[in-house]
Amino acid sequence: QVQLVESGGGLVQAGGSLRLSCAASGITVRMNAMSWNRQAPGNERELVARITSGGITNYSDSVKGRFTISRDNAKNLVYLQMGSLKPEDTAVYYCQASAGYWGQGTQVTVSS
Question: Is the Cβ–Cβ distance between 22 and 37 less than 8 Å?
């Protein structure tokens, strides 16, 4: 059974930082393309960052230069380091594996 469990969300002031974690079981993160996505109220879910099995990363224009996706192969974890946070980054953040699995999401709220 595949499970993706996100953690690390919370309330932070604008300009602050947070690190999200995605703990995977039932799959091996280094063998999958893994991504972070987010959905704000009233908006569609959007891709934020992605890391391929080969370690290539890409980012949405809205977070480029502020967010970093990485993984810990030994711990089977995927991270999203978020910096210079803005109120418009407020959303539920979801971890996804390329095989089509999603986590339950973690709320990130950025206050102005």
Answer: no
